[in-house]
Amino acid sequence: MLTELLILHTLRRQECTIYKLRKTINSQFFLFCSASISVIHRALKSLEAAEYVKVRKSMSKGGQKSSRYSITQEGGKHFERLIVKELPANPVLAQQLANIKALLLGEVEKPTRSRAIKVLKDYYKGVLADLKDFLADNASESLNREFIKHEISVIDEKIKNLSFQDLN
Known about the structure:
67% of the residues lie in helices and 8% in strands. By secondary structure, it is mainly alpha-helical. It folds into two domains: 1-84, Winged helix-like DNA-binding domain superfamily/Winged helix DNA-binding domain (Arc Repressor Mutant, subunit A), CATH 1.10.10.10; 86-168. Strands 1-2 form a two-stranded antiparallel sheet. Helix 1 (2-13) crosses helix 4 (73-84) and helix 6 runs antiparallel to helix 7. It starts with a helix and ends with a helix. 24% of the residues are buried.
């Protein structure tokens, strides 16, 4: 889902070769992920089979084969479905996707953005509740309580920021 989301986002802006896709994804989202050619290739094949992307193959004057990918109308709809899709149960992947979805909120129209914000806020509220429970349940442990408190304040700010974005 992550790689598909990033590919579709990139193709919404421009037609690309697989190498241009990798370069764009890795330069725009390097703080949250990196994508190898093999991962992008597998995702492109899946997206192409579902008719979310189309490929235009050509040959250069020097005989070099080239494939350029573009998004289809159905691919644009799939991008919006991915933006509003619930986050996975895996906490590492969920956090990674939450960060990327938050970055992409400006790429979708208001109704889709509002639904995506609701998904993100619900996710962060769950994380917030888990952190507070963890803090309460481990009161006597020699854990770094200040770190947990800081994480709670960071999540609180994310929820406030999402609420503000939903108003605009």
